[in-house]
Automatic annotation (TrEMBL):
Residues 22-110 form the Heterokaryon incompatibility domain. This is HET-domain-containing protein. It comes from Hyaloscypha variabilis (strain UAMH 11265 / GT02V1 / F) (Meliniomyces variabilis). It holds the Pfam family HET.
């Protein structure tokens, strides 16, 4: 462990039991931070003395009788991936064994009663993922404003902190269930998506390799590590957050991100019946778990879905060993069975249900898996850019033909916007007619075809008098450039490319769907 001497402002390394008492700093990173390499420079002492955050921390530590401080920005050599990984896995314990933690709030101005001014609860420090463990791990936490004037301590500000953070266990967080702990992080942000998981490892008492680049898989690994050490089923008491992810009917057992636990702060665990229950086990068939299953159907009873008994629906209610509040109903999730197998998906993951009162079904050993990867693929959207064609006297229409050949949904949008199509898989057509030909009975029309086959998009052009005469070869390779000669001798050219969503289409296209732009010209 590397510590900064508060007197000399020089770095020193310590190992094992030789680590001296130290104070530790919690802060929000700014645009310009003093790093490890800055302090190693020959003018490192001057750099540290000129930084109000570092020098203020050292000054306060000396005032309180501590010779050393630990500051993440300058005590970790982040150019070393091995050192960074060790530091992230050790950080919770470093905050836990520190004699005092100083929280420096650079965005809270000095005030006679800073704890009750509007700036304190609005501080960005309360919105960051890493600062959650920095609040929970140390026994003694002191808050300071931007001028290093004390605001209060975790003990004296307990009521204010509980109100700001919704944390009900500031001094005994280990007594909270998994869902509660996750809910505390649900609305916090991290710069890198992997840190949504890494910043929670210490709170759940797990360690795992740090793999920047794995993305959201880090949070999945975190949950898999947690269930190796705990049988707390509240880890499954989450609701999918649809603000950033398209609604999906099926999912696996685990949440996709901490935000899925945003509404789980009132979950409490219940006593598990004394019986032989198999431990959780991750297998190549999915998560092996024992749950009580109640065959069920879903009935829409405004304003919510209600459960009813239905033996052959393929859906089951699975009761979890947790409940809503202290005296609330037991929490349940809905599972969908794959045929007659022992494999299940989670159904309607955006909803948590109340378990039926009379729940006497025996425990069943099942496997919960996530849906096939292609199930997670959202719709593909095609916006048609044909202004040059329209200027040449063409208009568009959706052809009426053999409906068994065509699929897709054209969006009815405001006049002046480009035609918009959404597809999951299938083939769709857009008909182009020359306006003057509609009256002269001249057949100078053409069709633009758009296809999505196994997730691969393609386009085609066809000169034909009827959509029923257009072949639909789903086995051909999709192409993204095509040109055809019209009966009048002109050439129509179409191109397909991925593109950003235009403002006019933003309200129609969900965040995680794919957008293609199809440009058509006549030369």
């Amino acid at each position: 462990m590397r510590l900064l001497n508060a007197k000399t402002l020089k770095l020193h390394s310590f190992f094992g039991r030789d680590i001296p008492p130290y104070a530790i700093l919690s802060h929000r990173w700014g645009e310009s931070e003093v790093m490890f390499q800055d302090l190693e420079h020959e003018r490192g002492v001057d750099v540290a003395r000129a930084d109000p955050k570092i020098f203020g921390c050292c000054t306060q530590a000396l005032k309180d009788g501590w010779d050393y401080v630990w500051i993440d920005s300058c005590c970790i050599d982040k150019s070393s991936s091995a050192e960074l990984s060790e530091a992230i896995n050790s950080m919770f314990s470093w905050y836990q064994i520190a004699f005092v933690c100083y929280v420096y709030l650079s965005d809270v101005p000095s005030s006679a009663d800073a704890a009750h001014c509007s700036a304190f609860p609005k501080s960005a420090w309360f919105t960051r993922g890493w600062t959650l463990q920095e609040l929970l791990a140390p026994e003694t936490v002191i808050f300071f404003d931007q001028d290093w004037i004390e605001i209060g301590t975790k003990a004296t500000l307990e009521d204010e902190l509980m109100s700001i953070t919704n944390i009900t266990h500031l001094f005994n967080f280990s007594e909270a269930c998994i869902a509660q702990k996750m809910s505390w992080a649900a609305r916090r942000k991290t710069t890198r998506v992997e840190d949504e998981a890494y910043c929670l490892m210490g709170i759940f008492g797990v360690n795992m390799p740090i793999l920047y680049g794995e993305g959201a898989n880090a949070f999945l690994r975190l949950q898999q590590e947690i269930i190796k050490m705990s049988d707390d089923e509240s880890i499954f008491a989450w609701r999918r957050d649809n603000s950033t992810t398209r609604h999906l009917a099926l999912s696996g057992a685990f949440a996709g991100a901490p935000c899925d636990f945003a509404e789980s702060g009132n979950i409490r665990t219940t006593l598990t019946e004394v019986e032989d229950i198999l431990p959780y086990l991750m297998t190549n068939k999915g998560l092996q778990i024992q749950l009580r299953l109640f065959p069920a159907g879903l009935v829409w009873n405004k304003p919510e879905w209600r459960l009813s008994r239905a033996e052959n629906s393929g859906k089951f209610v699975a009761s979890l060993n947790c409940k809503l509040g202290t005296n609330g109903d037991r929490v349940a999730i809905c599972l969908w069975r794959l045929g007659r197998s022992d494999i299940f998906f989670r159904f309607n993951p955006e909803i948590l249900y109340s378990a039926p009162t009379a729940f006497t079904e025996p425990l069943s050993k099942i496997f919960i898996i996530g849906p096939p990867k292609q199930t997670f693929r959202g719709y593909s959207w095609f916006s048609i850019e044909a202004h040059q064609v329209f200027l040449q006297g063409y208009c568009t229409s959706i052809p009426i033909g053999d409906s068994s050949k065509f699929s897709g949904a054209w969006q009815t949008i405001e006049a002046g916007c480009s035609p918009l199509l959404n597809l999951r898989d299938g083939f769709a057509l857009l008909q182009f007619d020359k306006i003057e030909d509609l009256f002269e009975n001249v057949e100078d029309k053409f069709f633009l075809g758009m296809a999505l086959v196994k997730g691969r998009a393609g386009i085609d052009l066809c000169v034909s008098t009827s959509p029923d005469n257009i072949p639909r070869d789903t086995n051909s390779r999709p192409v993204d450039r095509v040109r055809k000669v019209l009966p009048g001798g002109k050439v129509v050219v179409a191109s397909l490319r991925k593109a950003q969503v235009s403002p006019e289409h933003r309200k129609y296209i969900p965040f995680d769907d794919t957008h293609y732009k199809v440009e058509i010209t006549i030369v």
